[in-house]
Structure formats: structure tokens, C-alpha cells
Amino acid sequence: MESDWHCDFDSDPEYDDLWNVIIMRRTKEIRSRPKFFKLYDDKDFRDRFWISKKTAWNVLDCIRLQIEHKTKWNHALSPEQMLLLTLRFYATGSMLRTVGDLLGVSQSTVSRVITVVSHHIAQLKDHHIYMPKTEIDLKKSQRDFFKLAKFPRVIAAIDCPHVKIISPGGEDAELFRNRKGIFSINVQTLCDSNLRIIDIVARWPGSTHDATIFRNSQILCRLESGEFGSGIVVADSGYENNHFVIMPLMHVNTSAENLFKESHIRTRNCIERSYGVWKRRFPVLSLGLRLHLAKTQSIIVATAVLHNICCNNRDIMAPPLSNEIEDVVNNMINIPNNRNAESHTINNVTRKCLIDNYFSLL
């Protein structure tokens, strides 16, 4: 009986096909991977990764040891290739499989590479994202802001852009739906007059009010403690007016108030411009991140670090955008607000002092 069973199995075409499917495996193919640092000149390199070769090398020098594989088994990716895969993802916002086609690697490999590289770039935050640390830095920051529109004592501008994400799922998913009806993370940033991001908080759901994020941030405690002396931060009407945060006037009655309003607008404009440069250089922030929430937060901080490195290296040329991406970027930078600014104008002592003792004398 046993021999008859084997005979029936071998002679049945249906079993033959099934057996072939079971034992057949795809042949492993080792593809040659181009060396883009040598293949492209600086212009072609920037057109594809939207940062210069010099900037990319500087970043690679900082994270090479952390991301390098211990062996070359299984044709492991080099640190250069891992960084370029990640930069390509930041610069295009494409599907992971499409990004993987750049070097002929799988979707899962791209996901792991982006996770590791983004994490280690984000770990550079303390070296590249920081408030003025010394009295000399504070005075320089105030002088630089003063040159913009003659607004005194300003050390930073603050606001919150939204970064589009997919629904994180779970019971709290709706907390991430913002006023525009899309899922996002509300990211608080402060910038200096040179558009550098000097503080960032990237963990709050899109439905969270800007003022709530600020009230629960470390930077508020530092401002309240007097760490920055008499320095002030300019903000829009979504924040609470106090001794160290100055919001705009809603109604102008005098020439001094008109000068204050105009100077405030021109000074605070640098935060909007920083978002424009940041999101144009890394369109993945505007087109949307389709990754796990923890990975998304690392990517946001990592792109902020890269933005500052570009500013420090004077790599500030924003790459051209298609009309479609331009519309998405502009829509994501400014989400219509439903704030009642009149309820945040109780503590006007500092603002009134600036108007009466400075702007009225101009």
C-alpha cells in the first residue's frame, strides 16, 4: 500500500504542480549599486537629494559609526547608501518600494534603514537645535532680530506647523485629526532671524491647541525662570500675551500702535519663512508620512536637524517645486485657526511698555 501511494502521488499532474510550487524558490540576485557621490556632480546630486554633497558628507561623518554594519555579509548596505536612501525618501515622500528601487533593495530594508538613520540624525538634536546659551549669544540674537524691523529684545519667533500623517489607529486616533479634517502632528518650533530652528517639540496630536503645547513645554519653564534675561518671543494671536511672549494687536488706535503692529508682523515673519524652506527642502513633511507614529516623530526632528545643518553650511537654495507640491506645502503651512485672541490679551504690561516707551518715540 505504501508503494502504491507513492506511485499515485508521482503520477498525478496536480500533485506535481503543487510540489514544484513548494520547492521552487526565487534565485537570489546581487545587483551592483551605484556610488552616487562619485556618479553625480553637485548639481545633479542636489537635484535628486535636495542637499549638497558637502552637507551630506558632514551628516555622514557624524553618524557613520552608529549606522555602519559590523560585517559585509549578505551584501550589506554601506553607510553612504543608507544615508542616501533616507535623503531620497525625505526629498520625494515616495512609497518605500519606490525609494528602494534607487539601490535595488526591498521595501522592508528601506523601512529599517530610514528608521535607523532618522533616529541617529535626530540624536544630533542637542548639537544643532538649541536656544542662545550665553549672554553674548543672546545679544547677538537680539541684534539680528532688530535688523529685521527694529523690534527690540526679541530672541525668537514661535509657531506650530502641522505635519500630515496617516491615522495612527486605536482609541485615540481622532485626537490627531486637526481643524482641517486631516490627521497630523502639531509641531512647535522656535526659530532665529536666520531661519534656524532653535527649539522643537514634535509629539502632540493635530487637534491640540498651540497654546496648550507651549504651556506644557520646557521652553516655557526656561523663559519663566529668567534664563534668557529680558529676551522676548514674538508669537501670533494663538498664544497668551505675557512678560516674555508678545502677540500682535487686534485693534490699532495710534501711530505708535501701528508701528508696533508693522514691526511685529515683519519680525515674526521669519518663522513662516523657516517653515517654507524646511518643507520645501523635505517635501515628505507636506505630502504626508505613512509610517508608524514613533518613526514619524524621529523623521520630523531629523529633518529639522538637517535644515539647521544646511543653514550653517549656507546650503539654503530651496529646490523648485511642482505646482501640486507647492499647493500642498502652502496649505499645510497655514491651517485656518478658530482662536479668540481677545481672551489672551489680559497681561499687556510688557507690550504696553514697549509701545509707550519705545515705538511712540520713533
UniProtKB/TrEMBL annotation:
One Pfam family cited in the UniProt record for this chain: DDE_Tnp_4
Domain DDE Tnp4 as annotated: residue spans: 158-308
Location in the cell: Cytoplasm; Nucleus
Keywords tagged on the record: Cytoplasm, Hydrolase, Metal-binding, Nuclease, Nucleus
Domain of life the protein comes from: Eukaryota
Keyword Hydrolase: yes
Cofactor(s) demanded: a divalent metal cation
Keyword Protein transport set for record: no
Function: Transposase-derived protein that may have nuclease activity. Does not have transposase activity.
Family label: Belongs to the HARBI1 family.
UniProt cross-references to PANTHER family, sorted A to Z: DDE TNP4 DOMAIN-CONTAINING PROTEIN-RELATED, PTHR22930
Protein's name according to its UniProt entry: Putative nuclease HARBI1
Source organism of the structure: Bactrocera dorsalis
